[in-house]
Write a structure and sequence with these properties.
The chain has 166 residues and is of the alpha/beta class. It folds into two domains: 7-125, Rossmann fold (3-Layer(aba) Sandwich), CATH 3.40.50; 132-164, Single Sheet (Rubrerythrin, domain 2), CATH 2.20.28. Helices cover 40% and strands 17% of the residues. It has seven helices and eight strands, in the order E-H-E-H-H-E-H-H-E-H-E-H-E-E-E. Bound molecules: zinc ion (ZN). Zinc ion is lined by residues 137, 139-140, 142, 153, 155-156, 158.
């Protein structure tokens, strides 16, 4: 007997807080593109190269379907193109008869998923609330606030990395 694997679809935040989900882990290319920081990019591409997460883009037909739905529900204004593709990929697999779970904390995505009857799982709220990040220069150790969006240190040009605040 063939046991079906659950399809887990990860949005951008889910990529950054990646935990191993038992099944097939997929995301869309646009979600990867949203990962901007060098250290986070490295982490996420490591997951892709290691075969833990695969990248797949949804068929155009399903993107259009989601757009129509979102216009109807009024969610279209708050959904990004990435969100729409995540939803379209989930719908695509659902229509193929697969067991689909979307990993997302985004309420707009969750709303649409409920309309579609697709399961979702938020990231652990406990962890999300507890962890505070700081940005530190890996060379000179200078701290930067989370709204410092450069990849390199303004003082020494060293690489900025994200660390858990303790
Ligand atoms: Zn520095």
């Amino acid at each position: 007997m063939n046991i079906k694997k659950t399809i887990f679809i990860l949005d951008t935040t889910a990529l950054l807080y990646y935990t191993r989900y038992h099944g097939v882990n997929i995301t869309v290319e646009k979600a990867l593109d949203e990962v901007k920081r060098i250290d986070e990019k490295r982490l996420v591409s490591g997951l892709v190269e290691g075969g833990l997460i695969s990248i797949e883009n949804p068929p155009r037909k399903y993107i259009n379907k989601i757009r129509d739905l979102a216009v109807e529900s009024g969610d279209i204004k708050i959904l990004s193109d990435t969100d729409i593709e995540i939803l379209a990929l989930a719908l695509y697999y659902k229509m193929k008869g697969e067991e689909v779970i979307v990993i997302t904390d985004d309420y707009a995505i969750q709303n649409i998923l409920e309309d579609l009857g697709i399961r979702y799982r938020p990231l652990s709220r406990k962890i999300k609330k507890r962890i505070k990040w700081i940005y530190v220069c890996s060379k000179c150790g200078k701290h930067f606030s989370t709204d410092y969006h450069e990849d390199v240190c303004a003082y020494c040009g060293g690489e900025i990395v994200r660390r858990e605040k303790v």
